Amino acid sequence: MATWEIMGEGGGEFDRLATFLKSGIRGVKETQPVDTPIMLHLADGGDTDVFTWWFDEITKRGVDYDLIGLSYYPYWHGSMNALQTTMNTISARYDKEVNVVETAYGHTTASADSMPNAFGPEQEIAGGYAATPAGQREYLNDLVTRIQTVPNEKGNGFFYWEPLWYNGNVSWATAAGMNYLGVQSQTGNEWDNQAMFDFNGQALSSLKAFQEAGRQQNLLKNPSFENDGFTNAPSNWSVWRGNGAAIDTLKTETGGFSETYKATFWDDQAYQMSIYQTVNGLSKGTYTLTAYTMAGGDLTTSQVYVKNHGGKELKASITKSGEWTKVTIKDIPVTSGTSEIGIYVDAKAQGWVSVDHVTFVKNQ
């Protein structure tokens, strides 16, 4: 990377960079197994323009690679929506699978040593998740969802950086290691509160995110409204039309959360409407319902709900936002073997709600 830094960022320097990369790739192919994949990795996973600029130039120069890697830290690189846009765009534009190869989030804002940390109260606010083991786990679960919803199954997975640096006596930050290198600065590391172990080395609950990534089976059918193209009656969803609702008050349209389509409620007069699915054959346990929503205009009531699960109806409000927002109902106790999952809207004229990627999964 010193070559890149010295040469700068102009077109001629891309020529030199491409030559440098081709030499490295050729060396890998000559010395490693023939199926060893080549990944090119950039930081700033929330900046689509950076990725298209850089990979357009590399592609023009015929650099042969297999995978694209992104770094993504939510407190530095923007919203999950921004990451999703980058992954969707580059996976389609270059026909490559994508991997989030650096990510982390704090389980506390405290520090295990005297070294100032990269993650503190400001980063907790910017990142949008609580600096707790539960918040760290929720962040990783949401990240997995985003990766899994990259179109055409081009989202591969993620690497966590760095799960084991839980205090100042771990890895490169050891006093012995610093003495060996002749480093005179204070011992410690700036990442200890983003590890996946507490300061005493005890595993945190966030580690379960790795198990959950492969086990979350969505029990809903047509959860992202992709089955029918444009329609007023999305398959596998029942539609209830109340006062003021017409056939075309509900429609699927482009602009989905991760794939092509979303379901949108809208009318030029006041209306009431819901869509829902009934899921049968459920084993006893707790479940989680999530949906991604956008909304605007004059809404009397807009909510995601679950009922007939063996307890009282549970609801979560859909907030007004021009960006996709996750709505969640956690720890739903299912004892009846069935549940009705739905979205209900009671709106004034011009009030609208869009919904996509609805999931209903059993907790592990």
Automatic annotation (TrEMBL):
EC number: 3.2.1.89
Keywords: Glycosidase, Hydrolase
Reactions performed catalytically: The enzyme specifically hydrolyzes (1->4)-beta-D-galactosidic linkages in type I arabinogalactans
Enzyme class: hydrolase
Gene Ontology biological process terms in this record: pectin catabolic process
Parts forming coiled coils: none
Keyword Hydrolase: yes
UniProt cross-references to InterPro entries, sorted A to Z: GH, Glyco_hydro_53
Molecular functions (GO terms): arabinogalactan endo-1,4-beta-galactosidase activity; glucosidase activity
Family matches, as Gene3D superfamilies: Galactose-binding domain-like, Glycosidases
Family per record: Belongs to the glycosyl hydrolase 53 family.
Name the UniProt record assigns to this protein: Arabinogalactan endo-beta-1,4-galactanase
Species of the source: Enterococcus mundtii
